Amino acid sequence: MPNHVHVLLSLGNQTTDVDNFFLTDDALSFSYQPLSEVMRRIKGASARDINLYLDRRGTFWQKDSYDHYVRDAKAFENILYYILYNPVKAGLVTEWREYPFTYYA
Question: What GO molecular function annotation could you give as one example from this UniProt entry (predicted)?
Answer without folding.
Answer: transposase activity
